[in-house]
Design brief:
Layout: E1 23-24, E2 36-39, E3 44-45, H1 65-71, E4 94-98, E5 104-109, E6 114-119, E7 127-131, E8 134-138, E9 142-147, H2 156-159, E10 161-164, E11 180-184, E12 191-195, E13 200-203, H3 204-207, E14 215-222, E15 228-233, E16 238-243, E17 250-253, E18 255-259, E19 263-270, E20 273-280, E21 285-292, E22 294-299, E23 303-308, E24 312-317, E25 323-328, E26 334-339, E27 345-350, E28 353-358, E29 363-368, E30 371-372, E31 387-392, E32 397-402, E33 408-413, E34 428-431, E35 434-438, E36 443-446, E37 451-455, E38 461-466, E39 469-474, H4 482-485, E40 490-494, E41 498-502
Length: 504
């Protein structure tokens, strides 16, 4: 490459730097790809020169919001079991706003016309998610599950499932899926799981309470559909499989490592070694092997991809238990790994950087000094279908990495507080002087007045809070013109509410 190539995280020129300054339930009753490397010494990417394609382009939106929602952005997937909120489908046709203080829910169409309004019985909400057409919310004392409808009446007595639980106030999504959320009680002895696309609920207190359980949700694992959740129970030194397709849980020795629709993988670490075992969902044992201490795993078609604490990438054959050495990572001591929601990429984080590994165990890329973004307006920014967002915090640099090839799709000097689309390839990020739109074609300022608090799943519409109102705006990424000024924002209610996009 020429020495005149743009610096790492080229921001397109002249862009700002980062600012551093109740139905109540009864509890009793992620083919081989060429390896690319983020070189922290020469502060450059070993890859194609993206200067030309990052030239700032005009992207004026001159259609109404409803049209922009369909046509703008890269629409990935059309699984009927998910919606934009569930990361399985980029389509949306309604906006759901939630008042966390009162528990009031308002549904409006894409033109801002209110079509439904109700309260579901909880208030002082600690966390809320909309997955598919299901709203899940939790306060300090209970969790509620509500099937949304654009117009039909919704009542507490007939439509709301409420589970009383002294919760930690957080809805966590297990690694591997965006379709299921889990609430945990303050003692970690009890879990309530909700499958968003169907609204099904599992309450561990009702299904099979385990004395002395201490569930570690940081190590919860599931498959892309989110119907099988494998959780480590540190209180009993075991893993427990909770399934929406089975009547009760199954129990396995060791730490939760990986799960799919058919099998479970656990690991018992002993010193610098590990005993890795495969079971079916009923608990019947399959193959097993002894390896170095394991920190991450992913099930592929004919083997389990394992990553050891020192970065060794191994393949455990499901047919006979043979171990094959597949590669070695150079990201330092491995801390953890998550399977991407697409199911065929393993995101491995070490003390010196992040790596992507495919279903064959091939190292797709290594990114020295980088970590997936997990903070900000959208804490789920890394969990997308096509791209991974990573940051180098010390340098204030952000990059969007293609899951398939490991190449850089977009880069900028920006905050890690990412708002991500379904595909993850076209986020909006804040800076000290406004917002940037990152796409494969350009890094450009987003033209708006107000604070961005939401982005539609397809990336074509943003939710903005300004002048004490919530508004929907097309994603205009150029200097305003007369045509752009003529586009009226869509008002969806007063400020102080959360915005969700859904297909109802």
């Amino acid at each position: 490459m020429s020495d005149s190539r743009p610096p790492i995280f080229d921001d397109g020129g002249g862009l700002p730097d980062v600012d551093r300054s109740r139905r109540r339930t009864d509890p009793g009753g992620p083919g081989s790809a060429e390896k690319t490397v983020w070189d922290s010494d020469d502060d450059d990417w070993h890859g194609p020169n993206y200067l030309a394609r990052r030239a700032i382009v005009v992207a004026l939106v001159v259609a109404v919001i409803a049209v922009a929602a369909v046509l703008v952005g890269r629409i990935i997937g059309s699984d009927d079991s998910g919606s934009g909120s569930g990361f399985g489908n980029a389509d949306w046709n309604n906006v759901v706003t939630v008042d966390s203080n009162s528990g009031t829910v308002v549904v409006t169409n894409a033109q801002g016309e209110e079509t439904n309004r109700f309260r579901f019985g909880l208030s002082s909400l600690a966390d809320t998610e909309v997955i598919g057409s299901t709203l899940i919310s939790v306060d300090a004392d209970a969790l509620a599950v509500v099937p949304l409808d654009a117009e039909a009446e919704i009542t507490i007595a007939d439509d709301v499932t409420t589970v009383e639980i002294a919760s930690t106030g957080t809805l966590l999504r297990p690694s591997g899926s965006a379709q299921t959320v889990v609430a945990q009680n303050t003692s970690s002895e009890r879990l309530v799981m909700v499958h968003g696309p169907t609204g099904e609920v599992i309450d561990t207190l009702a299904t099979d309470p385990v004395p002395g359980a201490r569930y570690d949700l940081a190590n919860a694992r599931t498959e892309p559909d989110g119907r099988h959740v494998l959780v480590t129970d540190t209180g009993n030194f075991q893993s427990v499989l909770f399934s929406f397709d089975r009547n009760g849980p199954s129990f396995f020795p060791g730490l939760a490592l990986a799960v799919n629709n058919d099998i479970v993988v656990t690991a018992v670490n002993v010193g610098t070694n590990a005993n890795v075992a495969v079971f079916d969902h009923a608990g019947e044992p399959g193959v097993s092997a002894r390896t170095s201490s394991v920190r991450a795993g992913m099930i592929s078609s004919d083997r389990v991809i394992l990553v050891g604490i020192d970065g060794d990438v191994l393949g455990l054959a499901l047919s006979d238990g043979d171990i094959t050495e597949l590669g070695s990572l150079s990201i330092g001591t491995v801390e953890f790994g998550d399977v991407a929601t697409r199911g065929d990429r393993l995101v491995v984080v070490g003390e010196l950087g992040t790596a992507l590994i495919d279903a064959d165990g091939t190292i797709v890329t290594e990114l020295p000094g980088a970590r997936p973004t997990t903070s900000g307006v959208d804490e789920l920014a890394p969990r997308r279908t096509t791209c991974l967002t990573v940051e180098r915090e010390a340098a204030g640099e952000l990059a969007v990495i293609d899951f398939e090839t490991g190449t850089v799709g977009a880069e900028a000097l920006a905050s890690s507080e990412v708002l991500g689309t379904v595909d993850g390839c076209q986020p909006i990020v804040p800076t000290s002087a406004g917002y940037l739109s990152l796409t494969a074609e350009a890094v450009t300022p987003v033209t708006l007045v107000g604070d961005v608090i939401a982005i539609s799943p397809d990336g074509g519409t943003i939710g903005v809070e300004r002048a004490n109102r919530l508004e929907l705006l097309p994603r205009v990424t150029a200097n305003p013109t007369d045509d752009a000024d003529a586009i009226e924002p869509v008002d969806v209610g007063r400020s102080g509410r959360q915005i969700f996009f859904a297909e109802l």
